[in-house]
Write a structure and sequence with these properties.
InterPro entries: Pept_tRNA_hydro, Pept_tRNA_hydro_CS, Pept_tRNA_hydro_sf. This protein is α/β, with parallel strands linked by helices. It has helices spanning about 5-10, 40-50, 90-100, 135-140, 165-170, 175-195, 200-205; strands at about 20-25, 60, 65-70, 75-85, 110-115, 120-125, 150-155. The chain has a 7-stranded mixed sheet with strand order 2-3-4-1-5-7-6, with helices on both faces. The longest helix has 24 residues, at about 175-195. The protein is globular.
Length: about 210
Protein backbone atom coordinates (compact mmCIF):
# COMPACT_ATOMS: atom_id res chain seq x y z
CA UNK A 1 0.00 0.00 0.00
CA UNK A 2 1.50 3.34 -1.07
CA UNK A 3 1.46 6.66 0.76
CA UNK A 4 -1.57 8.03 -1.10
CA UNK A 5 -3.42 4.74 -0.61
CA UNK A 6 -2.81 5.10 3.13
CA UNK A 7 -4.18 8.61 3.08
CA UNK A 8 -7.28 7.50 1.19
CA UNK A 9 -7.89 4.58 3.55
CA UNK A 10 -7.56 6.80 6.59
CA UNK A 11 -9.90 9.39 5.11
CA UNK A 12 -12.51 6.68 4.59
CA UNK A 13 -12.11 5.42 8.13
CA UNK A 14 -10.83 2.08 6.89
CA UNK A 15 -8.17 0.05 8.74
CA UNK A 16 -4.56 0.78 7.88
CA UNK A 17 -2.91 -2.53 6.98
CA UNK A 18 0.82 -3.16 7.10
CA UNK A 19 2.35 -3.99 3.74
CA UNK A 20 3.39 -7.47 4.86
CA UNK A 21 0.17 -8.62 6.49
CA UNK A 22 -1.22 -12.15 6.58
CA UNK A 23 -4.71 -13.23 7.56
CA UNK A 24 -4.39 -16.52 9.47
CA UNK A 25 -7.68 -18.34 10.06
CA UNK A 26 -7.80 -21.30 12.43
CA UNK A 27 -10.81 -23.44 11.56
CA UNK A 28 -13.08 -25.01 14.15
CA UNK A 29 -16.45 -24.83 15.86
CA UNK A 30 -17.34 -22.27 18.55
CA UNK A 31 -18.20 -23.32 22.09
CA UNK A 32 -16.48 -25.13 24.95
CA UNK A 33 -18.01 -28.47 23.96
CA UNK A 34 -15.97 -28.47 20.72
CA UNK A 35 -12.76 -26.87 21.96
CA UNK A 36 -10.74 -30.09 22.35
CA UNK A 37 -12.10 -31.84 19.23
CA UNK A 38 -9.79 -32.95 16.43
CA UNK A 39 -11.82 -30.67 14.15
CA UNK A 40 -10.71 -27.69 16.25
CA UNK A 41 -6.97 -28.17 15.94
CA UNK A 42 -6.84 -25.15 13.63
CA UNK A 43 -8.17 -22.94 16.42
CA UNK A 44 -5.64 -24.48 18.82
CA UNK A 45 -2.91 -23.32 16.44
CA UNK A 46 -4.50 -19.87 16.29
CA UNK A 47 -4.39 -19.70 20.10
CA UNK A 48 -0.72 -20.67 20.07
CA UNK A 49 0.15 -18.01 17.51
CA UNK A 50 -1.72 -15.32 19.44
CA UNK A 51 0.13 -16.31 22.61
CA UNK A 52 3.47 -16.06 20.83
CA UNK A 53 2.86 -12.51 19.65
CA UNK A 54 1.31 -11.46 22.95
CA UNK A 55 -2.10 -10.65 21.48
CA UNK A 56 -5.56 -11.35 22.89
CA UNK A 57 -8.59 -12.29 20.83
CA UNK A 58 -11.23 -9.59 20.68
CA UNK A 59 -14.67 -9.31 19.15
CA UNK A 60 -14.59 -7.94 15.62
CA UNK A 61 -16.92 -6.20 13.18
CA UNK A 62 -16.84 -9.38 11.13
CA UNK A 63 -18.40 -12.48 12.78
CA UNK A 64 -15.03 -13.49 14.22
CA UNK A 65 -12.63 -13.01 17.10
CA UNK A 66 -9.34 -11.46 16.03
CA UNK A 67 -5.86 -11.08 17.52
CA UNK A 68 -3.30 -8.87 15.75
CA UNK A 69 0.41 -8.39 16.13
CA UNK A 70 3.85 -8.53 14.53
CA UNK A 71 6.07 -11.62 14.52
CA UNK A 72 9.01 -9.34 15.31
CA UNK A 73 9.75 -5.61 15.10
CA UNK A 74 9.63 -4.69 11.43
CA UNK A 75 8.51 -8.19 10.50
CA UNK A 76 5.27 -9.63 9.10
CA UNK A 77 1.99 -8.74 10.74
CA UNK A 78 -0.45 -11.53 11.57
CA UNK A 79 -4.19 -11.02 11.77
CA UNK A 80 -5.22 -14.23 13.53
CA UNK A 81 -8.90 -15.08 13.38
CA UNK A 82 -11.34 -17.62 14.77
CA UNK A 83 -14.83 -17.55 13.31
CA UNK A 84 -17.89 -17.26 15.53
CA UNK A 85 -19.78 -19.46 13.07
CA UNK A 86 -19.67 -23.22 12.73
CA UNK A 87 -17.13 -25.00 10.55
CA UNK A 88 -19.57 -25.58 7.70
CA UNK A 89 -20.17 -21.82 7.35
CA UNK A 90 -16.57 -20.61 7.56
CA UNK A 91 -16.68 -18.92 4.16
CA UNK A 92 -18.70 -15.85 5.09
CA UNK A 93 -16.46 -14.78 7.99
CA UNK A 94 -13.29 -15.40 5.97
CA UNK A 95 -14.60 -13.38 3.02
CA UNK A 96 -15.64 -10.56 5.37
CA UNK A 97 -12.19 -10.51 7.00
CA UNK A 98 -10.41 -10.32 3.65
CA UNK A 99 -12.65 -7.43 2.63
CA UNK A 100 -12.26 -5.62 5.95
CA UNK A 101 -8.46 -5.72 5.85
CA UNK A 102 -8.22 -5.18 2.11
CA UNK A 103 -6.30 -8.41 1.56
CA UNK A 104 -6.37 -10.82 -1.35
CA UNK A 105 -6.57 -14.62 -1.05
CA UNK A 106 -2.80 -14.73 -1.69
CA UNK A 107 -2.46 -13.32 1.84
CA UNK A 108 -4.74 -15.90 3.44
CA UNK A 109 -3.43 -18.87 5.45
CA UNK A 110 -6.06 -21.38 6.58
CA UNK A 111 -5.07 -23.83 9.33
CA UNK A 112 -7.21 -26.96 9.46
CA UNK A 113 -7.41 -30.59 10.46
CA UNK A 114 -6.57 -33.14 7.76
CA UNK A 115 -7.72 -36.77 7.75
CA UNK A 116 -5.44 -37.79 4.88
CA UNK A 117 -2.26 -37.01 6.83
CA UNK A 118 -1.01 -39.10 9.78
CA UNK A 119 -1.40 -37.63 13.24
CA UNK A 120 1.54 -35.45 14.35
CA UNK A 121 2.34 -34.41 10.78
CA UNK A 122 2.11 -30.95 9.18
CA UNK A 123 1.90 -30.36 5.44
CA UNK A 124 1.67 -27.10 3.49
CA UNK A 125 0.10 -26.33 0.14
CA UNK A 126 -1.49 -23.58 -1.92
CA UNK A 127 -4.67 -24.10 -3.88
CA UNK A 128 -6.46 -27.37 -4.52
CA UNK A 129 -9.87 -28.73 -3.68
CA UNK A 130 -11.62 -29.23 -0.38
CA UNK A 131 -11.08 -33.00 -0.09
CA UNK A 132 -14.40 -33.38 1.70
CA UNK A 133 -13.53 -30.81 4.38
CA UNK A 134 -16.66 -28.70 4.81
CA UNK A 135 -14.82 -25.69 6.18
CA UNK A 136 -12.58 -25.55 3.14
CA UNK A 137 -15.55 -26.21 0.89
CA UNK A 138 -17.35 -23.13 2.20
CA UNK A 139 -14.26 -20.92 2.02
CA UNK A 140 -13.64 -21.96 -1.58
CA UNK A 141 -17.25 -21.14 -2.41
CA UNK A 142 -17.02 -17.72 -0.73
CA UNK A 143 -13.72 -16.83 -2.43
CA UNK A 144 -14.62 -18.08 -5.93
CA UNK A 145 -12.23 -21.05 -5.62
CA UNK A 146 -9.24 -18.82 -4.89
CA UNK A 147 -5.79 -20.30 -4.35
CA UNK A 148 -5.03 -19.64 -0.69
CA UNK A 149 -2.38 -21.27 1.48
CA UNK A 150 -3.30 -24.17 3.75
CA UNK A 151 -1.49 -25.48 6.80
CA UNK A 152 -2.79 -29.04 7.00
CA UNK A 153 -2.56 -30.51 10.48
CA UNK A 154 -2.69 -34.29 10.38
CA UNK A 155 -5.23 -36.02 12.63
CA UNK A 156 -5.14 -39.38 10.83
CA UNK A 157 -7.93 -41.68 9.72
CA UNK A 158 -10.56 -43.07 12.13
CA UNK A 159 -9.93 -46.61 13.33
CA UNK A 160 -11.98 -49.48 12.01
CA UNK A 161 -15.34 -48.52 10.56
CA UNK A 162 -15.81 -45.34 12.60
CA UNK A 163 -17.42 -42.54 10.61
CA UNK A 164 -15.01 -39.74 9.72
CA UNK A 165 -17.50 -37.03 10.75
CA UNK A 166 -17.85 -38.60 14.19
CA UNK A 167 -14.08 -39.06 14.48
CA UNK A 168 -13.20 -35.38 13.94
CA UNK A 169 -15.88 -34.28 16.41
CA UNK A 170 -14.28 -36.35 19.18
CA UNK A 171 -11.50 -35.16 21.47
CA UNK A 172 -7.97 -36.36 20.85
CA UNK A 173 -7.16 -39.64 22.58
CA UNK A 174 -5.05 -39.74 25.71
CA UNK A 175 -2.02 -40.92 23.75
CA UNK A 176 -2.53 -38.18 21.18
CA UNK A 177 -2.91 -35.51 23.85
CA UNK A 178 0.60 -36.28 25.08
CA UNK A 179 1.98 -35.28 21.66
CA UNK A 180 -0.60 -32.64 20.73
CA UNK A 181 1.34 -29.62 22.10
CA UNK A 182 4.25 -30.49 19.81
CA UNK A 183 1.92 -30.82 16.81
CA UNK A 184 0.28 -27.47 17.53
CA UNK A 185 3.70 -25.86 17.99
CA UNK A 186 4.94 -27.31 14.69
CA UNK A 187 1.88 -25.98 12.85
CA UNK A 188 2.39 -22.54 14.40
CA UNK A 189 6.04 -22.68 13.32
CA UNK A 190 4.85 -23.47 9.80
CA UNK A 191 2.58 -20.40 9.71
CA UNK A 192 5.44 -18.21 10.88
CA UNK A 193 7.78 -19.72 8.26
CA UNK A 194 5.28 -18.99 5.46
CA UNK A 195 4.89 -15.40 6.62
CA UNK A 196 8.63 -14.86 7.01
CA UNK A 197 10.15 -16.87 4.16
CA UNK A 198 7.35 -17.81 1.74
CA UNK A 199 5.58 -21.08 1.01
CA UNK A 200 8.32 -22.83 -0.97
CA UNK A 201 10.96 -22.32 1.72
CA UNK A 202 8.50 -23.40 4.40
CA UNK A 203 7.62 -26.54 2.44
CA UNK A 204 11.28 -27.44 2.10
CA UNK A 205 11.64 -27.17 5.85
CA UNK A 206 8.50 -29.00 6.93
CA UNK A 207 8.32 -31.62 4.19
CA UNK A 208 11.91 -32.76 4.53
CA UNK A 209 12.54 -36.11 6.23
CA UNK A 210 13.44 -35.74 9.88
Amino acid sequence: MGFFDLLRSRSKGEPTVAANTWLVVGLGNPGAQYAANRHNVGQMVADELASRIGAAFKSHKTPSRVAEGFLRPGGPKLVIAKSNSYMNTSGGPVSALLKFYGLGPDRLIVVHDELDIPFDTVRLKAGGGHGGHNGLRDILKATDNADFTRVRVGVGRPPGRQDAADFVLKDFSGTERATLPNLVSDAADAVEAIAEDGLVAAQQRFHSPA
